[in-house]
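Example record used in the benchmark description.
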Amino acid sequence: MNLPFIAPEYYVGLMSGTSLDGVDAVLAAFENNTCKLLHSKFIPFDEALRIELLALNSAGANELERAAVAANELSRRYAAAVQTLLGNAKIMAEQVKAIGCHGQTVRHRPDLGFTIQLANPALLAELTNIAVVADFRSRDIAAGGQGAPLVPAFHAALFSHPGHHRVIVNIGGISNLTSLPPHGGVLGFDCGPGNLLLDAWTTRHLDQPYDKDGTWAASGHPIPELLRQLLTEPFFASPPPKSTGRDLFNLPWLEHFLSPDFAPADVQATLLELTVKAITAAILGHCSTASEIYLCGGGAHNGTLMRSLKQSLPNRSIAPTDDLGVNADWVEAFAFAWLAKQALNGNPGNLPEVTGAKGARILGAIYPA
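Model output (structure tokens):
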């Protein structure tokens, strides 16, 4: 008996994260309960837009208008990324079911009942002629959740193993983890700063966007007293569910602990250890039986950070998600393609045990083509 051919469904995922480096775009195919990442594209932010997005993380003059203008500029870049992506893949816009667009977070205050991810999904739908699913976090927050992290549901769908306890650690601007035990519920939460403070300190002192491979951090020596003081931040000791962002971890927060006697390279080394200590404490405190740890996000390319993690978490396999078949750079964007599919199919996208929401919810607002 010949089964009918079912064509794959194509979705695009867009992510621009806390690191403020640019737009990650992926084309994903979903077929017979499987998903595959087909193509990817990165478009860097120009400096003017990056500076404006960073400024919009804090209150400022005329910020409502500036945020709206920035959202339009972002959406034009999203559209350019989509068009380039589809051109490279030789896929027509009408073949794509939807775009999942996370937007650019400029406020994340679940404690006050709101979160803001800049984007103009209507403009993006107009420019691409593809349906757009956006504003994924708000419904979870409305249901009493943190609205983040949202990728653990995708991690569970893609990376779970029936015989191995795995932890997926995303090291973007903020680090977060997903615990995937072979038996029992999924756990996920933000650990603390990932690359955010490392990048900001590098930009200030080296006029470079990031510390490539952690070379500058490796040239310094962690300052024990500074590290101890940084770790007194209550967020680190608070139990999950929890999420964070630039609202808490930023240069003014760091400067509160600094002494003029500290060498900049030593501060960088300390910030790298802060990221490592936060991730290590999260794993040992909440998923200590995990034997496999897989890294994704920009931090997966930081050799100094990777070596320090391996020293802090001995007797565990630590590798990038490339070893699971998905390039570490594209996991988050891939997740938002999956979340868009969940929304269009009327399926929940959150995990209440991760976010703290009152129950499973369909996430995202849909803007038809």
